[in-house]
Amino acid sequence: MKPAIRYIIISAIVIITVVIVRWFFIGSYRITSDKMAETLKAGDCVWVNKLKGKSNPGQNRIVLYSSPLRRDIAKPPLFIGRCIGTPGDVIRMGPDGFRVNGRLLPNAPMMQPTFRIRRDIKEQLLTTMESLRIPLRDAKEDSVSLIFRMSLREKELLTRNLSQVVQIEMIDEHRMSYEFVIPRKGKALDINETSLMVCKEAILTEAGDAAVIRDGKLYINGEEKTYYFFRKDYYWILSENETEGIDSRHLGLIPEDRVIGNIWYCWYSKDASRRFKKIR
Questions:
Q1: 7-107+176-185+232-278 topology per CATH
Q2: Which of 131, 161, 174, 208 is such that its CA lies 20 to 30 A from the CA of 52?
Q3: Is 7 helix (H, G, I), strand (E, B) or coil?
Q4: What torsion do the CA atoms of 9, 14, 19, 22 make, to the nearest 10 degrees?
């Protein structure tokens, strides 16, 4: 075989192999938001493991996925988040964070809950916050307290730098408590008020025009259903930034075909310390 022909054949094999690997197994993506800034920053370039398996997507892994609500466009927006729940897991949401099968996952450091602090130290508080570059978010006052939002990391920093010991109390204004089971393919899920709230979009997408939700009840082809068999596996994925991030609290359950895979490796970042870093 002539060297030129051999070179062309080898080059073609290499190109085909690279295309197959990138299309089916590994993909390179650029992060476009800071919603997981504790782990990845905007501008970071990552490898994503696209080969689906028992641990991909894996519980507590950072994953790349697309919105299940944008079925009308060819390339729906991509999001990153931590896979909190996998098919069959029991999720309980409460003021202290999420519990998965009874195990507590504390609130993320970038979450911005509401805090209350004594009003009589307002001047000292504002001075300290300004020096630490902590913004005063959604502030309001009552007769004894100053109320505002900040992240858990900012709260820790503020506590260390105030000149006197002050109780900074976290209050919960909006978070409701509820418990639900993440749907598993081929398994029946009891239909109740909570499961309908969480699974509404998934059921309507799977069942199409045959499904109707009316007065808190599910009807399939006009017949009321007290359970539903799902056709896909689903996941519960959360951002580290609860206030600004888009995740399952906004998009609902993420079906298996919308999860691209575990984010495996950061191969480029403006921050040299983040380059060639495995993502956990």
A1: Umud Fragment, subunit A (2.10.109)
A2: 208
A3: helix
A4: 170
Cβ neighbours for 163, distance < 8 A, ≥ 6 positions apart: 124, 128
Q: Which two tokens mark 245?
A: 């991030």
pLDDT digits (tens, 9 = 90+) for 95-121: 667 789 988 876 666 667 788 898 888
Q: Is the pTM of this model over 0.90?
A: no
Give the pLDDT band (50/70/90) at residue 241: low
50-91 pLDDT, tens per residue? Answer: 888 777 888 888 899 988 887 666 677 788 888 989 999 999
The DSSP output letter for 56 is B
Respond yes or no on whether the N-terminal peptide bond of residue 76 is cis (omega within 30° of 0): no
**At 141, which helix (H) or strand (E)?**
strand 137-141
Residue 273 neighbours by CB under 8 Å, 6+ apart = none
DSSP, residue by residue, 240-270: S-TTT--SHHHH--EEGGGEEEEEEEEEE-S
CB atoms closer than 10 angstroms to residue 161:
12
How much of the chain, in percent, has pLDDT values that exceed 90?
A: 28
